[in-house]
Amino acid sequence: MKTKSILAFSALSLVLTSPPVVAARTVTCESIGNERNVCRVDHLRDQKVRVRRTLSHSPCIEGRSWGVDRRGIWVDRGCRAEFEIGNDDNKSNNAAAAVAVGVGLAALAVALSSDNKDDNRHQSSRDDAPDFVYRVCNREALQQVQTKRHGRYASLSRVEKVHRTDDGWRLKAYYELRFDRQTYTEPAVCEVNNRQQVTLFQFK
């Protein structure tokens, strides 16, 4: 009984001390002349930022052509997009953060450290590929969605892995697909040769 009381008190404390959920807001940021640009946004810490809508022909890829730092949202390589800051996911994120604090900051620190290492590895692998790989794969995705699936829009959202092949590059990535009343993310594989031609593109 005593143990249950302690657990109940701990749960109540977490609820009362949980940070408020921030309502979603949107910011449009543009890389002019393919140069890096920072759009200042305050209070980004602990908030989720995602591309709500790509407005440029150049793909907006997290970690490569857009990202978040202490000043706000940065864009590069011709990316122009509408970014959503804070959404329903914040509810689960805040709850997860509160639970993580309750069970121990040490485990959270280890997890964050591991994530940062993975991000650094993915960042370096993405930068090894030339821009045309992402551009032609994005164009092929858009063409397939519009001609074969009667969709309205497709844009490269996140790179999972990219590596060299005998005659070019192989890209595994996630694409944001938009239809009349639905938007979702779907993985795909794209292979591009050194002549900047798509030799394989397949949604999984």
| SSE sequence, one letter per element | HEEEEEEHHHEEEE
Q: In angstroms, what separates the terminal alpha carbons?
A: 51 Å
Radius of gyration from CA coordinates: 20 Å
Strand content: 25-35%
* Count of discrete domains: 2
Largest beta-sheet details: 4 strands, antiparallel
The percent of residues in helical segments reads 25-40%
Describe what is shown at a glance:
Helix content is 35%, strand content 35%.
Structure commentary:
With 204 residues, this protein is of the alpha+beta class. The protein has 2 domains: 2-127, no CATH class; 131-203. Helix content is 35%, strand content 35%. It is built from 4 helices and 10 strands. It has helices at residues 2-17, 89-103, 105-127, 131-148; strands spanning 25-30, 37-40, 49-54, 66-69, 72-75, 80-85, 153-165, 168-178, 183-193, 198-203. The strands form 3 sheets. Strands 7-8-9-10 form a 4-stranded antiparallel sheet. A 3-stranded antiparallel sheet has the order 1-6-3, with no helix packed on it. Strands 2-5-4 form a 3-stranded antiparallel sheet, with no helix packed on it. A hairpin with a 4-residue loop joins strand 9 (183-193) and strand 10. Helix 1 packs across helix 2 (89-103). The protein is globular. The N and C termini lie far apart (51 Å).
Map the helices and strands.
Elements: H1 2-17, E1 25-30, E2 37-40, E3 49-54, E4 66-69, E5 72-75, E6 80-85, H2 89-103, H3 105-127, H4 131-148, E7 153-165, E8 168-178, E9 183-193, E10 198-203
Antiparallel strand pairs: 1-6, 2-5, 3-6, 4-5, 7-8, 8-9, 9-10
Helix pairs in contact: 1-2
